[in-house]
Amino acid sequence: MKKQAMVSCAQPEAAESGVEILNAGGNAVDAAVACALAQTVVDPLMCGIAGFGTAAVYMPGKSVHEYFDFHSPAPLAAREDMWEALLEGETKDGFGFILKGAVNDIGPQSIGVPATLKGLFEMHAAHGRLPWSAVVEPAIRWAREGCIVRPGMYSFWIDKPLAGRVSNLARLQYCDEARALYCNADGSPKLIGTKLVNEDMANVLSQIAAEGIAPFYEGDLARSMIDHLQSLGGLLSMEDLKQCAVKRVKPLVGRYRDRTITTNQPPGGGAMLLEMLNILEQFDLGAMEHGSVDYLKLLSEAMKKATSDKDRYIGDPAFVDVPLDVLLSKEHAAEIAAEIRSGKRFEVVRVNPGAPVPKDTTHLSVVDGDGNCVSLTHSLAMPSGIITPGMGFYYNGCMGVFDPRPGRAGSIQPGKSRFSSACPTIVLDKAGKPEIVLGAPGGTQIAMGVLHVLLNMIDHGMGMQEAISAPRFSSTSNSIDVCNRIPHFITRELQAQGYEVGRNPYNYTIGWVHGVQITSGGLRGGADPGRDGLALGTWVD
Question: What pTM, to 2 d.p., does this model score?
């Protein structure tokens, strides 16, 4: 008897690759790794093999429920105070710092240790069913045969920079290799519908498929990368690549109503998500009008409090004592809820705020026919703009989120991983069985997007696609930022009550959630309309 399986992600080509692997007999991990590798080819500014990420793996037949954390640490040559004198400001949502010369945002010094390829390889080695070469093959094919520039890709490429941020077009134009791949002769980005062929990346992936990841982390590919980056003044070394390590950790577990929420450990965004859920559990959200003024006010205060706690306390636990026992306690949540009921408005402190919210990163959710689940978020942060000649892929720009001020949870230290709002999540029902598999791209808005969808499903009874498509808002600063489908009569009332409101021109924003719902009637997928993707199902033996 055939069983249902599904992949939901932000790129149709990558979803197709994941389903192709499921149909070939692969399990959810095989499909997730193939899908993620395809994403690195077909969405090259959102993610890459030289990026970072985190993945939830749930396999009931093996009694496995764990996270693979492949964050991108600062190079060993980095120093806590190396950029202290360059600080000019901070992004509005706290997801990055503006430095003189943008040295942390673009160019060779913005690059952290590439970790995505190692994370995907180790996931597959631990739990994959098909050969490694088989799960790499779809990505090789997309690179060699080409994929098209999609509307979501193009809109990201031409997004206008604000308040000190480097534009995405500047990242496309930064080096000769990138311009050859993604720009026309006049420097403008290639238009929607243009085919992108990347022979260099196809060759790199072919070598990795045949030889594994050793060439990338210790061999000829590694030497070529490091020689190139150091010639440009980069911080990365061969020792950084050699020491790159994937952490396999237990989920961070919380309760919301009658569900168990399993998400990722710091320096990921799971703690933010659980803190917000704990606060909001103190209120009867199901009895409130969805999207009303009071609803926006309540959720925004929970968001602001979790954001300020993140800024102050959450960092790499190998370097920072993260007080999870306090932050995630029900008592802490009850105290915050009491303050909200009393009318308190929380403050989020920023240094010269103003830069826009980042829109990078990507996500995939997979459920296979045996009930195995994977929720995987990976990213380049904002891409560094650099492609080593003959390689075909961007390096991450992970150094941009580190705090250049010494002595803080997010400060730079050699070997330290940056905070990431990524929170790939699996929700278990009353019986302890997976019910919701989801995650999102979108900078600090990731946790907010995931929060909205969980509340929409658990408190408001929506299905996966309806919950994803409902209008969203966020407050990761002292402003309430709304998508353009939040009515003006709602925001006028908020402003009349003294709230600062920012209106995003996009109809679908505040994270871009992709997920799969497991119901008694089968799998129900959802893909965020703000991106190009889809939820693609299949039936397997």
Answer: 0.96
